[in-house]
Design goal:
Blueprint (H helix, E strand, L loop, with lengths): L8 H9 L6 E6 L2 E6 L3 H12 L4 H17 L8 H16 L5 H17 L3 H8 L7 H11 L9 H6 L17 H23 L6 E2 L5 E2 L3 H9 L3
Antiparallel strand pairs: 1-2, 3-4
């Protein structure tokens, strides 16, 4: 998309390696879920994608609940808030089980339809669709997209919108990303930028691979570029 950021390839590598958000998730049954943590962010991503893309509707919904748990687990101040995250999960599950968004099957169908949109590079349309699910505003819908397809999507939140005004995301008076049609189009462009930057870093050779928390070297995906941009150093 022709966008330039004031970050060198070396800075991307350093920032991605320093990404510090907790690698946590949920697993088990939706009526008896358990909290788990991972030694690497790649393992966490794989877990979420496996849940969200599962043909088992209850597992798909578990992936949605796990995304909510992960997204609320830590605040911008770095403090963990597991109790808040659990409460948000229970609220979302209660609404789904009460029949909101078509119940368990309807919610799973929505997530699977969003995956089809993302795979066609219609990431903004996927965010718009996912917002029909409880507790998924534009930011949390983008978190689901990033777990559905980490090679194609990244998260857009107030930190990214504030630090990188060149993406031109519209925010409200509190700095939160708005769910406007314009922002959905800009999310498409944003994800295209993330994919392009990931490809260029991968083409730069093994020296520019990033190191995960278990000391494994990993190739770049769209979500990795976003996490490098998110991480302050």
């Amino acid at each position: 998309m022709g966008l330039r950021l004031p970050l060198t390839p070396e800075q991307f590598v350093d920032r991605r390696g320093a990404y510090s958000y907790p690698a946590v998730a949920l697993d088990g049954r939706i009526d008896s879920w358990k909290e788990i943590c991972f030694q690497s962010t790649w393992q966490m991503d794989h877990h979420h994608r496996s849940l969200l893309t599962s043909p088992d509707t209850s597992r798909t919904v578990m992936g949605y609940l796990s995304t909510i748990f992960w997204g609320h687990f830590s605040g911008q101040d770095g403090r963990t808030r597991a109790g808040r995250a659990r409460a948000k999960v229970r609220q979302a599950l209660n609404l789904i089980e009460s029949g909101r968004s078509g119940g368990i099957k309807g919610a799973a169908d929505t997530i699977h339809q969003a995956l089809t949109l993302v795979e066609s590079d219609r990431c903004g349309d996927a965010v718009k669709l996912l917002r029909s699910l409880p507790q998924l505003g534009p930011v949390f819908a983008s978190k689901v997209c990033a777990f559905l397809a980490p090679a194609k999507c990244g998260v857009i939140d107030s930190i990214i919108a504030s630090k990188y005004p060149q993406f031109e995301f519209l925010v409200d008076g509190k700095g939160y990303v708005k769910g406007t049609a314009t922002n959905m189009r800009r999310y498409d462009s944003y994800c295209a930028f993330l994919r392009e930057r990931a490809e260029s870093l991968n083409q730069a050779g093994d020296y520019f691979l990033w190191t995960d928390r278990d000391n494994t070297s990993q190739r770049w995906r769209a979500v990795d570029v976003e996490r490098a941009m998110f991480q302050p150093i």
